[in-house]
Amino acid sequence: MPKKRVNSGVKGLNDLLAGGYVEGRSTLLAGGLGTGKSI
User: Fold this and answer.
1) Is 11 within the bounds of a domain?
2) pLDDT, tens digit, 9 for 90 and up, residues 11-33
3) Predicted confidence band at 6 (pLDDT cuts at 50, 70, 90)?
4) What is the pLDDT of residue 28?
5) pTM of the full structure
6) Is residue 33 assigned to a domain?
7) How far is CA 12 from CA 1, 15, 20, 28, 37, in A?
8) What number of other Cβ atoms are within 10 A of residue 4's Cβ?
9) Within a domain: residue 1?
10) Which member of 3, 19, 26, 36 has the lowest number of beta carbons within 10 Å of its beta carbon?
11) Number of domains the chain contains
12) What is the domain extent for residue 12?
């Protein structure tokens, strides 16, 4: 069964996440300073 995706509100992030966050799952975003983790 396909997993339902939740729109992140950021097109580029949705593209990287194959359509958005997976509903009901935690997602950890990590990266160095100045890499765009905060929106």
Assistant:
1) yes
2) 999 999 999 999 999 999 899 99
3) very high
4) 93
5) 0.71
6) no
7) 25, 5, 10, 16, 12
8) 11
9) yes
10) 26
11) 1
12) 1-25
